[in-house]
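Structure tokens please, single chain.
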Amino acid sequence: MRSFRVVRDIELGLKNLRLHKLRSFLTMLGVVFGVASVIAMLAVGEGANQEALEQIRRLGSNVIILRSEKPVEETTAAQRASFMSVYGLTYEDESRIRETFSTVTRTVPARIMRQEGRSGARRMDLRVVGTTPDWFDLVDRPLLAGRVLKPRDMDLAAPVVVLSESVARRLLAADEATGQKLRIGPQVFEAIGVLEGAGGGGGDQRLDSDADIYIPLHVFRERFGEILVQRTTGARQVELVELHQIIVEVDHISNVEQTAAGIEAMLNRFHPRGGYAMDIPLALLRQAEATQRTFNIVLGSIAGISLLVGGIGIMNIMLASVTERTREIGVRRAIGARRHQIIRQFLIETIVLSSVGGLIGILIGISIPRLITRFADMPTIVTTFSLIMAAGISMTIGIVFGLYPAMRAANLDPIEALRHE
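Here you go.
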């Protein structure tokens, strides 16, 4: 009997909503837009977050990246005259780090310079990276063709080069890039492998970029020397930098920050004027995750305002419905309907409005990120959590904002309600 009454109340609620289709649809719009905005905004935020975190994770959470960086006073002086700048990391720094810290498993040195690459009539500005085979173990760049540098390439000082995917496509526009010759500055090298693209450009201070090519460190020193010359408008800058980068691999993630502090103290002793910078991907990862949590709270709060407006719209319409149906409520109370039955009927109506609005909002919210990814080329990720949260919020809105009108309807005096015109 009780289940029959519940079913009857649901039928009455749905019937009343169908009698006012346009009003019911307009009432749902607030919830629709609110739910859709919650899902879409969180999808955009999550997509941006995952892209940033992936770039940091590619560096490895158990590595420390040291970079040579010109001191400020030398940068200012270089703008006024032509002279040799001597700064940055050295081969001795690499040896000291490897031998001093027991938590360091290996170090990977790298020298970097800009050179023009040529293959036939094709030309491209390249970032030449002289490094060791260990570089390819520490930096996540999948191999697409051929092979990477091997210890024998270092021993034989072989004039070989590993290319980034974009370099291979632009300079060696052929199905098989490996085995082809290309000119790097005045030198000729043989392509032995192709790596997947880095996913973005970058200057000389990036760990990797889409314009990178990799040659043995010994070959770099023999073919291009230790002194780098950069010509700018009205000036010529000559730099002596032994190493532009040192990647330090730590044995365990728990030792990264302690090892980084020790390395920084040691470098400060041997480089009192600076000339270097340190990046710790683990710290960057934690900072990015904390920033994203704050970002998600902000986005959720903004979208929550839309849901609040939708909930107020539902309450407003239901209060108007109570006024319109005062006589109907009086008749039901006069023939024996209890207060909880009146409350249940009105709550059913508000829950149906918010649930259907929430479902439509979820469908729109899933579609918007796909359109953003397609037309704006922005990464978006719709998470299961955002869908569950949006559905839960829409249901809660139906209950919370429908409870007051339902209570008001249930508390009407039957006699006064019957007299209502």
